[in-house]
Structure formats: C-alpha cells, structure tokens
Amino acid sequence: MKFEPVIGLEVHAQLATNSKIFCGCSTQFGAEPNTQTCPVCLGLPGVLPVLNEKVVEYAVRMGLAVNCEIREKSILARKNYFYPDLPKGYQISQYEEPICEHGRVDIQLENGEMKRIRLTRIHIEEDAGKSIHDEAFVGKNESLVDVNRCGTPLIEIVSEPDMHSPQEAYQYLTKIRQMVRWLGICDGNMEEGSLRCDANISLRPEGTTGLGVKTELKNMNTFRGVEKALAYEIERQNEVLQSGGEIVQQTLLWDEAAETAHSMRSKEEAHDYRYFPDPDLLPVIVEKEWKQSIADSLPELPDVRRTRWLSNYDIPVYDVDLLNSDKGLSDYTDKLFGVVNDSKTAANWVMGDVLRFINDQKIEIHDCKATPDDLAKIIQLVEKDLISRSSGKKVFEEVAHHGLDPKKAVEKLGLAQVSDSGALDQYIEDVIQNHSDEVEKYLSGKDKVFGFLMGQVMQASKGKANPGMVNQLLRKRLEELKS
Amino acid sequence: MAESRQTYQQIQSRLNNGETTSEKLALQYIEKINKSDLNAFITVLDERALDKAREVDRKIQSGSAGPLAGMVVAVKDIFSMNKVRTTCGSKILSSYIAPYDAHVVSLLEKADAVIVGKTNMDEFGMGSSTENSAYGSVKNPHDPDRIPGGSSGGSAAAVAADLAMTALGSDTGGSVRQPAALCGIAGLRPTYGRISRYGLIAFASSLDTVGLFSQFVSDCADLLQVLAGEDGNDSTSSPVAVPDYHENIEQGIKGLRVGVPEEYFRGGLDSSIRESVQNVLQAMEKEGAVLQPIKLPMTDYGIATYYLICTAEASSNLARYDAVKYGFRASDIQDLDQMYLDSRHDGFGDEVKRRIMLGTYVLSAGYYDAYYIKAQKCRTLIQQDFKKAFEDCDVIIGPTTPTTAFKLGEKVDDPMSMYLSDIYTVTAPLAGLPAISIPIGKDDSNLPIGIQITSDAFQEDLLFRVANWIETSNP
Q1: Range of the structural domain that residue A264 is part of
Q2: Which element (helix H / strand E) includes A169?
Q3: Is it the case that residue A369 has pLDDT exceeding 70?
Q4: Nearest CA of chain A to the CA of B235: how many Å?
Q5: A61-82 pLDDT tens trace
Q6: How far is CA B446 from CA A386, B378, B443, B449, in A?
Q7: Does the beta-carbon distance from A46 to B202 stay under 8 Å?
Q8: Would the N or C end of chain B have less CB density within 10 A of its end CB?
Q9: What is the CATH number of domain B8-252+433-473?
Q10: How far apart are CA B221 and CA B254, in angstroms?
Q11: What share of chain B in percent tops pLDDT 90?
C-alpha cells in the first residue's frame, strides 16, 4: 500500500523586542550566563508579571500579515510543568483563547504552483531558560541552568496538517521565516534558536482523508535538519506500516549529527499541563483602533510585491523571488525599479554588483552607501555611454564604499568616457600608423582584424574611449582607406 | 491593653512636640517583643528598626518626616523584604534572603514607618489558626491556650498585645479579618487591586490582598492612605483614584442603609456573637441607620467555591519552590525527580501539601470543567449576589467568625471544621470586595468578638466611617 505523509508544524519565533515579555531585562543573545535576570524573570517569591505591549503588537503584526482573525480579548494562561530551567514551575502562554486564529500562507511548490497552508493559531508566550548538561562544563550527575533566556518573548505559529512532503514543510518554514523577517519581528536565525520548529507527522493510505497516529519531532536546529528529520520519520513510519505494525504515539528527538531520531516520551508519559488562566494578568485587549493602526503600519507584504513586480516589470520569476527573499533587498530593488527605465538591467545590477558587494563586505543592504538613486544614476551613465559598463562597476564600488555622488566618483576615478570625435580621431590615426600590417590585412578582406584594431584604440585611450563611437569612427576611417 | 494606648495621630503629635522620639518608641516596642512569649515574630529587625527610628528622628527635627513617621509596624513574613530572611512561615524558605522589597514595604519605608519585624503566620497563608507554621504556633494574647486565628495570626497577636502599633497581613479568604476578630483588633481587607500585591508571596493570586491591622480604625485609615494606589509592577492593581480616608470618617451613620443577610445568622453561630452583633445593629438603627434584611443565597457555596479556586491557584503558585535556585533542598539527592520529591515532601507542611494536591486535582485533565470551571461560575453568582444586595443597602453587616478563638490543637486535625471558620469571610474575596472586622466586646470566656462590615468595591472610606462610629460609640 502507498502512504501519504501528513505534516503540521509548530514554529516558535523569538520576538525582536529589546526587553523581555514580563520584565525590563534585556533579550540580547549571547550574554554571560545568568546576567540578564531580575526577580521577575527569576520567578522569585512575590513577583508579578507585567505584559510588554510590544509583544502584543508584534503578534498582531504577524497575525494580520498571515490573514489571521485577531481576538479583541485573549487570555494568558499558565502551562504547569516542572523543569529546572522553568523558574516559576509554569510557563505563561496562551491556551483556549489565543490572540490570532485561522490564518493562511501560500507557499511555492517545486513545479512552480502555489499551495495554501492554513494556520490554526498564533499565540504569545514566554521562553524558558537553558539547561546545560555538557560534561565539559559540569560534573557527572550535575546540570547548570542559564536563565538569561527566561521570559524572552515568543510567538508560536501552529499550522494545520496541510503539508504532505518534507519539501513542502521546508518551503512553509522558509515562508514563515521570510514573513517574520519581513515584518521585523524576529531575526529568523534557526542556529541561534530564534526560530525553532517542531513537527507533527503521520501517514495515511493514499487517497484517504483520515489521520493516522502521529509522532512529534523535536530538536531540529536547521532548515535542512527539518527536511531530513521528516524524511527519516516518514521512512520509519512507512516501514512500520508496510510490515503490518502500528505507529506508537510518541515524541522523538532528532539527532542532527547521527541523522536519526530517539524516542523522548510516549503518550502514556505525556504531560497534563493543567492549563488555567493566569490570575496575575488581565486579558490581552486589542481594540479595533489599535488593530487598525497596526494594519496600517504593515509594509507591503512579499506576496503582494511579487505579484506587482511580475505584472509591472519584465523580470523572470526566478529573479523576482531572489530579489524578494529579503525585505531590505526587496525594498532597495523596488526603489530602484521606480527610478530606472529598464527594470531587467536594474535587476541584473542588484543581483550582480550589489549582492556581490554586500556579501564581500559582509554587510546588510542598508549599510551599503550607494542608494537606489545613486545606482540609478550609474546605470544612466552607462546607458548614455558616458562611462563603460566595466567602469560602472568601479564607480558603484566607489560610491558604495564612500557614499559620494556617482558623477564625482567618475571624476575621482578618471573614468569619464571620451566621446569627443576629435580626440578619438587622434587615437585612431595613431593606431593606423603603428599597425600598417594589420590595416593591410583588413583592407584585403580579413574582417576579423577589426577587433584587434578596435582593442588597440581602446588601449590607447586607457579604456576611456566610448566603444560605440570608436567602432563607428574606426570603420568609417578604414572604409575611406579602402576606396 | 487598649485602654492605655494612643492612636497614631496622638503619637505623631507627641513626636512632633518632642515629648518622645521615634527611637524611644522603637526601643520600647523591641523590649516588649523580646519579653513576649506569644511567638508572634519569626524575625525581629531590632537594629534595622532602630537605625530607621534614628533617621526618622532626624527627619522630624528637620521637618521632612513622612506621613507615618515613627509608626512601629510589624510585617507578616509573607512580604518580600530586601536583605531580610523571608520565610512565608515555611521550612522550604527557611534560608531565603529576599533581594527586593515588596511594594508595600517600600511605601512604608518611604513614609518613615519603622518596621520592627516579620510576623509568624500559617505556612504560605494557608490556615485559620497560625498552627500551620514551621516556626511554631502563635498564642492569642487574650488566652495563651487559644489560637490567634490565621493565617496572619502573628500580625494580629502583635497588634493586640501592643508589640507593634499596626501590622501588615494578607487576606485571601479571611486571613486578616478572622484573626483580627479573634484577637480583638481592627482588620481591613481592601478591595482587590486597591493595594499592589508586588512582593506579597502568592497563595491564590486572584484572591490575595494586602491586609491591615490596627488597634484603632483611624490608624487603619492612615495606613491605607499610604499604601493604596496603582503600581506598575502589579497588572491587577487598580487606577481608581485614592480618596482622603479621613475626610468623612467622623460623619456618622444617619440614613445609612445596612444590609443584614439572613444567611449570616443561622446555625453554627455562637449565641454570644449573634447577640453582640444584633446589639450593634440595634444601636445603629437607633442612631438613624436603616436596617435592611437581605439575602445572599450563594453563601452556602462560598467555602466550596473558595477552596476549589484557592487550591487550584496555589498548586501553580507553589510550583516554583523546586529546590533548584533557592530555599530548602533535601540531602542525599540522586536525581532530579528525587530532588523535587524529597525537597517538597520535607520542605512543605501537611496543610500546604494537602492544598497542592487538591489544587492539582482540580486543574487536571478531565476534572477541570467539573471543579475549576464550575467554581468560577459559582464565583460569578456570588458576585451577582453582592451586586444585587448593594442595590438595597450601602454596607452589609454580620459576624466575622462563627466562634470566638478556639483552643490550640482543637481543630488542627480536622481541616473541614477549620475551613468552616472562614464561612463569613470567604465570599467578599470571591467578589473582590473590601471588608473590615472590628471588635465589639467579649464573650463569657472573655474572648473578643468581631463584627464584619462589607461594602461595594473601592468604598473603604465608607467602611472606615461605619467602623469608626461603632468604635467610638462603643454600643
């Protein structure tokens, strides 16, 4: 029998707020252990949480961007369980009345088709700390706890089981990362743990619509890891089912190095989290006016921009998706498109010179000192033959480094193209004098030699000669010699 | 005891006249505390108090002293106090030195009160007799064989025995009003949200309030004046404006509509308490108040509702005492589970463990709807009871407790009987309403009797007005 995988993802995104969700401590990654704490995030006796409004705003941003309904009143609830890196013995989360519900995102499949993935909910919650069991740091039978991360704000984005292959899950995850980055609410860095993904997966006979027994995969720390772990688990479940066995509901931990998964706990050992509304916190209220002002402040979303570009500009889909993958790059390109005549040429400049520059310099696009307007000017200089294409590249780098006006950069670098016919005639005459053999060959019908002569003229001008004009004038002069 | 005592306002003018000093007063109180055998205090802050008293004296000299200058206050050991051991009456916090001040502690210090010590209490506020303390029982100053009530028994006994002028307690289901009644002093539970809970170690967050003890109603008003108000560290603190609590305190009770709930005068109530309360009501009527028989039909469900909600919240609030970061940790630990189990087994007392287990059960999958949700519905009905009652009356008056102080050990093995001693005090917390208990005489065994006045939310000024009339007219 053939089986179809059914996959749902739970994505945790750390929100890029300056302070934690219930106290004023910093959320900076990588500080010395246990330095970013206070009585509140340590859960000391008597402290109370106070909700950071920015967290609500970010969650609503995401919710609106993925077409969720936003609850006017949502409830923060306690999820009770014991673990050393959970100082209060409960995590403040949302359970029965989450802030966002019933959303959707569209992902692009390998064949280019779009597929809609439904989102069950997005809720806000606090992160736990980190337990360190590594024997390099601690003795045998000892563990250390770093509570810096306690109280870092998270949103959990829960999808419907709408994905049917590891590739779809990968695309979905890519989409979620693009969205959170686009909205500026999370840096999307999976390696640093600011984006985390758990997967629920089951198999069902192809053509049926029910759901089989599922397992939950955790501890996937890279995008490729998610894809590999899902492929592994599909294969494992498939083998069990094909040999007539039954899937045991359980939680599995993915081991990235060994590329296998280990059982963490079975259904029988599953937690009863005893959720109940947190009496220390009032309901989260998102009034209509506030929701509207957040909606009004949303940037143009990537899907909308993609459609607009495809219909307004003559650019290949591949280029569009590449330029649209990151909001900074996309905004830069969009501004550029607004001020140039030829969008394809502009796209090539961004994908070539601009990307190369920011990659080489290891900077973000907004740190590049050549603005879209600057680049448009450079493109125009090339279009008008005032500088050559290769000079344009040098001018761009000069502007990108130092932020001066492109025309000044042309002067500074001495790259202004010589288009004055008198000056060019002089170069041409010199070349004809010094290469009489080649001129003879040309005159006897060996057309190929033209390229050589052309190159000599360019060299004589130190590359500054306008190649189009050189071509014209040289041909004209040689034809004169012929007759 | 009370006869020779002066109100804080009288003491304040003596301080300002130079008749006495804050240091002298603090010393007198510390001496009395050291001589006392009531076991009212877990920690006496003598040096700290004397330092503060000397500072207050300098401020009085320079005319910059705060509104509670020199007031000697005892603080229940449920309040976090910076650099002071804060035990909450529990072994599990026996070694815990708090690194921050509760909001009310900061306010007291800023107002130049002198905090003289941390008082004994039922562990985590769970109890009605202060017998559930890891630091020994507290004795009732009126009869050392009897309990002072609880859970704020140490604070109540301290004020009753004049080991402090006033005290802070906390009231979840009656933990201030009940011991105030049994010790013969005033005890106020303010409206939920009136005083910040920041630094009040949580037992049941939706019910816990800071509570106030004093010998005199006017002292209670002085304290509330300083402590009431919104606090950015407590989301549940209220922005409602704080009135001047002395403005109308002498206004009397003419024309006041007094609701008398029939449910508060049925079986189980000591006849001496019934008579005393009825005497007061008759005197009020004579003075011009209008007695209004009312019904609070949900009263019978108060105890059940209260114990479902408070245990549910407690089971979660007390999860943080896990021996990981602070507090008591059992020895000979082999693994994580054993550390949790042994530390909590040995660190918590029986009543606390009983409530954690009850609360865990209440919140468990499959029981949540039947217990927790149902209790929340009852809570709403109780709120509606009061709402309806306050359409016909301004205050509700009845007994604070069904009996006067019982004997040490009498009910300690009978939790149900102990829980029932809260029958008149648990409903106001469920409705978030303020209530005050003040003494109205004694029974045949010379034990104090308390009367409870309840008002609608944020009408503490009205409570003071009525209580002040009863206190001064002494019917």
Answers
A1: 3-290
A2: helix A166-182
A3: yes
A4: 6
A5: 999 999 999 999 999 999 999 9
A6: 110, 38, 5, 9
A7: yes
A8: N
A9: 3.90.1300.10
A10: 21
A11: 94
